[in-house]
Structure formats: C-alpha cells, structure tokens
Amino acid sequence: MKNNEKDFDAVKMMRDIRCQLHEEYERNPKKRKADLERIRKKYMRTTISR
Length: 50
Known about the structure:
This protein is mainly alpha-helical. The protein has one domain. The chain is built from 2 helices and no strands. It has helices at 10-27, 29-43.
C-alpha cells in the first residue's frame, strides 16, 4: 500500500513561493523590476562568444 503523505512536497513549496511573490509584486511593482534587473546583472552574460 502506498502512503500519500510526504515529508517534503517540492511542488507545494514552489506554488507557495510563487503565490507569495505574486502578492508582493502586486503591492510593489517597482520591487519586481528591481529584482529582475538584479538577477539579469548577476546571471546574464554581456557578450556571446561563438
């Protein structure tokens, strides 16, 4: 018999995080833009080498 109770549910955790961020960005749209700029600066490469 399979037990459906999980100690850790990653999908539920991601949904909760997404919902929390959505509410936060609804209240303060400038924070979303600032967060995206920070993430782009940290992770995006400025030049594409081929």
